[in-house]
């Protein structure tokens, strides 16, 4: 019974949907900041770079090592010694074995670099790598915000498309009913009736596509927010966002992240070049060593062993003279990389200024087109309303009514394209104006 209860409980929990409601794009951005897999990865890489700084500083600390060994001299090598040492005849030699069978060694060695430019540059490079990782976090956030804004405004666009489709469907139904009545009375031909029915079918398809596309936009948003397919997402937004004029938007852009990243990469290249040149500088280290050797003839019996201690300290100077030309090649290679990164930085600086100017121009153009498109859509809507009224009054033909309706439907696609272009520029300039 207990197992059955737990199984049912797990099944119920799996069916429970989490509810998420967002009232603005800003709320979506804030949620993604702490839940997106992309941001988690970027923060992890930043943390790894931070540990790299600790590792670089660790190279300045003394190194300490303890070693030990055990040797079993199964057979000691004989040595020729003068026989007269043992009372023999002068000029003759005899074989004797010297040493103990079991040798035990233990020692401790400590070393610290007093002068090591490579370690200093490693610290400097680690700090710059951390700065680059921080800029990559900002870059990831910038890209994620753009992706979220794209999904959000795509949802708004499809929502607007569905509103228009519902409006058109209502008109198509009324027009079809009117023409169907006239067809029954013998006032219109079958071509006009079929045309009205075709318009009705197309409008139903447009509405279905808009609803499906809204669902796709929400699914794309779930992916970016690291949500499951069962989670429910509700966007409480108006039919369309208000379109602020260019004068209502701040045109003071923060430094482009691509420029900051290019500058950081240039600094990394400069540090690598300096480090390569520093490889010619000698290294000075202080060394201390202490050890002891025990020698005996009995295995792990230390009563009659010889005790041979050793202890010393000193300074060790390492002067690199020749290493097959690898340092010269490394210095030349890093110099080329530095020159390249300097060019990339200068280019990105110029490109960022032009891109910002183009962004303003594009927004101004799409904003004007969007505002004008809304006015034209209202005029088409008014024309359609007038034509419908005149059809009922018998002032225009059915063919004229259908033509006006078709013009209204056709322009809706142009209008949605204008809205789409405006949305893209609007969220692009929104993200560009954020200071990360």
Describe the structure.
The protein has 436 residues and is an alpha+beta fold. The chain has two domains: 18-59 and 116-282 and 323-432, Outer membrane efflux proteins (OEP) (Up-down Bundle); 63-114 and 283-318, Outer membrane efflux proteins (OEP), CATH 2.20.200. 63% of the residues lie in helices and 16% in strands. It has eight helices and eight strands; from the N terminus they run αβααββββααβαββαα. The protein has helices spanning 2-15, 25-35, 37-58, 117-184, 190-224, 257-278, 326-393, 398-432; strands at residues 19-22, 63-72, 78-82, 93-97, 102-115, 232-235, 283-296, 306-318. The strands form three sheets. It has a four-stranded antiparallel beta sheet with strand order 2-5-7-8, with no helix packed on it. Strands 1-6 form a two-stranded parallel sheet. A two-stranded antiparallel sheet has the order 3-4.
- Secondary-structure element series: HEHHEEEEHHEHEEHH
| Rg from alpha-carbon coordinates | 41 Å
Low-confidence stretches: 3-16
Summarize the amount of helix as a percent range: 55-70%
**Molecular shape:** elongated
Portion of residues in beta strands equals 15-25%
Helix count? 8
Strand order of the largest sheet: 2-5-7-8
> Could you state the CATH homologous superfamily of the largest domain?
Outer membrane efflux proteins (OEP)
CATH class of the largest domain: Mainly Alpha
Under the CATH scheme, the architecture of the largest domain is Up-down Bundle
Q: State the major sheet.
A: 4 strands, antiparallel
Overall mean pLDDT stands at: 84
N-to-C CA distance: 55 Å
Protein name: TolC family protein
Subcellular location: Cell outer membrane
Family: Belongs to the outer membrane factor (OMF) (TC 1.B.17) family.
Organism: Ohtaekwangia kribbensis
């Amino acid at each position: 019974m207990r197992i059955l209860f737990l199984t049912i409980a797990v099944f119920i929990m799996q069916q429970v949907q989490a509810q998420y409601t967002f009232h603005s794009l800003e709320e979506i951005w804030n949620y993604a900041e702490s839940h997106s897999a992309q941001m988690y990865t970027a923060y992890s890489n930043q943390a790894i770079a931070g540990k790299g700084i600790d590792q670089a500083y660790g190279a300045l600390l003394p190194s300490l090592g303890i070693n030990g060994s055990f040797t079993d001299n199964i057979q000691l090598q004989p040595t020729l010694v003068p026989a007269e040492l043992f009372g023999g005849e002068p000029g003759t030699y005899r074989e004797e074995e010297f040493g103990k069978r079991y040798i035990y060694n233990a020692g401790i060695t400590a070393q610290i670099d007093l002068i090591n430019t490579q370690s200093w540059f490693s610290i400097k490079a680690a700090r710059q790598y951390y700065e680059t990782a921080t800029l990559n976090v900002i870059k990831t956030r910038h890209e994620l915000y753009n992706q979220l804004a794209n999904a959000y405004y795509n949802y708004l666009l499809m929502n607007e498309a569905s509103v228009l489709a519902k409006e058109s469907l209502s008109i198509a139904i009324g027009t079809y009913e009117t023409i169907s009545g006239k067809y029954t009375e013998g006032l219109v031909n079958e071509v006009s009736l079929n045309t009205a029915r075709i318009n009705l079918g197309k409008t139903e398809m447009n509405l279905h596509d808009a609803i499906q596309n809204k669902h796709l936009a929400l699914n794309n948003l779930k992916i970016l927010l690291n949500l499951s397919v069962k989670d429910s997402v509700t966007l409480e937004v108006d039919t369309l966002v208000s379109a602020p004029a260019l004068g209502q938007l701040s045109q003071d852009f923060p430094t482009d992240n691509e420029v900051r990243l290019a500058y950081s990469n240039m600094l990394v290249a400069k540090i690598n070049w300096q480090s390569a040149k520093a490889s010619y500088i000698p290294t000075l280290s202080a060394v201390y060593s202490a050890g002891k050797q025990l020698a005996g003839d009995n295995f792990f019996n230390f009563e009659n062993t010889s005790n041979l201690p050793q202890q010393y300290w000193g300074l060790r100077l390492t002067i690199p003279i020749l290493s097959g030309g690898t340092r010269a090649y490394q210095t030349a290679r890093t110099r080329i990389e530095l020159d390249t990164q300097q060019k990339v930085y200068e280019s990105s600086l110029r490109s960022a200024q032009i891109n910002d100017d183009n962004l303003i121009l594009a927004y101004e153009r799409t904003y004007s087109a969007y505002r004008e498109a809304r006015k034209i859509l209202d005029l088409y809507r008014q024309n359609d309303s007038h034509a419908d009224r005149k059809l009922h009054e018998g002032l225009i033909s059915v063919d004229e009514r259908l033509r006006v309706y078709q013009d209204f439907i056709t322009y809706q696609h142009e209008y949605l394209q204008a809205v789409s272009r405006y949305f893209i520029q609007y969220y692009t300039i929104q993200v560009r104006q954020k200071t990360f």
